[in-house]
Amino acid sequence: MAGRLPRDARGRARRERPGGDGADDIVFPLREFTGERIAFEISEGMVTEISGGARADNLRGFIEGYNDPRAYAVSHIGWGLNHHCIWRPDLPGIGMDGRAHYGNVLFSLGPDTEFGGENDTPCHLDLPMQAVRSGSTTSSSCRTARSCLRTCGHRAH
């Protein structure tokens, strides 16, 4: 089914960009900036390791708190296309500005039932990763997105 990740996908998702360390990426539903670089090791469509500093430990603890291994499943990957959105995690509502902000790559863990999948874990994390600097999109975000799609068995255009 379109949009579903194959179970045999293997690889490493890593987020880096010139002049940045990932500290201004957002974690929803925690509604906060990451504050540091956080890396996810992915194998067969599942996060197997979360590394970084104290924020990575907090994020890992948040997921572990659900006591559900399905919370580590990669749910979906998206791209922000709205030039009018504000890059802040604390705006009223459910965080659509951060998720839709132009130039971000959205990496998500958790449920995929809205896309026709079977994972209905209550743990859902959206991690929009900002890629816009001085009005231009950095090429690293595009490479990251293509790498994630190849890792998950999809073809990036």
Automatic annotation (TrEMBL):
Pfam families: NicX. Residues 1-25 are annotated as: Disordered. Residues 1-19 have a biased composition (Basic and acidic residues). InterPro entries: NicX (IPR058739). SUPFAM superfamilies: Thermophilic metalloprotease-like. It comes from Geodia barretti. It comes from the Eukaryota. This is 2,5-dihydroxypyridine 5,6-dioxygenase.
